[in-house]
Design a protein that fits this description.
This protein has helices at 12-31, 43-66, 74-79; strands at residues 86-89, 92-96, 102-103. By secondary structure, it is mainly alpha-helical. It is elongated, with a radius of gyration of 26 Å.
Length: 106
């Protein structure tokens, strides 16, 4: 952020999305009411479920960030963790040599 800007240009899509969603909120609340002007669902329960879902998504993201993918060796990437020297190609399997090159096969 140079020149005292409030936010970086990369944040513009997120800022615009937030503005649109926040401006739609009162419209969606009004549309979710029945003809008597009341909700057909429990507002506290709806809010609680929304917050629990948000917490679960946040916890999952944090766990993924902290326990992210482990580093693997080049050989393991080339061979694959379970397949040994075989790779799945289309509907069948093909052998690879120690250099990772395909050996003609099925």
């Amino acid at each position: 952020m140079a020149g005292g800007a409030m936010f970086a240009a990369e944040q513009l899509p997120y800022t615009c999305s937030a503005a649109v969603l926040m401006s739609l909120q009162p419209i969606l609340v009004t549309l979710s009411k029945n003809k008597q002007g009341q909700f057909d669902y429990s507002v506290p329960t709806s809010t609680m479920l929304s917050e629990v879902g948000t917490c679960m998504r946040g916890s999952g993201g944090e766990a993924r960030r902290k326990c992210g993918p482990r580093s693997v060796s080049t050989e393991e990437v080339r061979r694959g963790p379970l397949l040994g020297s075989r790779k799945r190609v289309g509907w069948g399997w093909r052998e690879i040599n120690s250099n990772g090159d395909w050996i003609s096969g099925r």
